[in-house]
Amino acid sequence: MFSIGENLSYLTMLPRVTMKASKLTKETINAIGVYERDFPEFNVGDTIAVSQRIKEGARERLQVFQGDVLAKKGTGANRTFTVRKIASDKIPVERIFPYFAPFVEEIKVIKRGKVRRAKLYYIRDRIGKSARIKEIVQTKAQKEAARAKKAAKLKAAPKAAAPVKKEVSETSK
């Protein structure tokens, strides 16, 4: 173990990873204009495709990051989820997405996974077939029931009222 007076110069040799991340609070989410996201419900183990908006100079484009959901963390405004994909040359890439981030355009569920853990960090140590997640196969009847349930949920949800803009009248001088 290290004592308090010991030289910790080895810490300067470690690579530094810095990220520009602003803390998302309820106030900042409301200021951005994101009140509720219409993302499909997904769980740990599912394979999802996250479309994110990327700015390159004056241009703006959508980039899709498709992979398995390893973890979901937090509640409310600070909710995040971790997605892992295997890139070219079998190099794993993980990204942590804030649920309410304005650059996340949409999320599509590609397939549902059957897992028995809340966090799949053990997948990081696995290679090849042992890193696969078993897929939940649904019958046509189950898919139709899920669609009907989703349609009923959309009908039952009250529509959000549009924000009322106050008109400012000019006063005479």
Helix percentage: 10-25%
Named at the architecture level, the CATH assignment is Roll
Structural class: alpha+beta
Low-pLDDT parts are: 14-21
Question: Main beta sheet, described?
Answer: 5 strands, antiparallel
Strand order of the largest sheet: 4-3-2-1-5
What is the overall number of helices?
A: 2
Per CATH, the class reads Mainly Beta
Oligomer: single chain
Radius of gyration, CA atoms, in whole angstroms? 22 Å
Order of helix and strand elements from N to C terminus: HEEEEEEEH
Roughly how many Å apart are the termini?
76 Å
SS elements, strand count = 7
Verbal overview:
The protein is α+β, with helices and mostly antiparallel strands and 173 residues long. It is 14% helix and 29% strand. The chain contains 2 helices and 7 strands. The protein has helices spanning 26-32, 140-156; strands at 47-56, 59-73, 80-86, 92-98, 104-111, 113-114, 134-135. The strands form 2 sheets. The protein has a 5-stranded antiparallel beta sheet, with no helix packed on it. Strand 3 (80-86) and strand 4 (92-98) form a beta hairpin. Residues 14-21 have low confidence and may be disordered.
Offer a quick outline of the entry.
The chain has 173 residues and is of the alpha+beta class. Helices cover 14% and strands 29% of the residues.
Key words describing this protein structure:
173 residues, 2 helices, SH3 type barrels, 5-stranded antiparallel β-sheet, alpha+beta, 14% helix
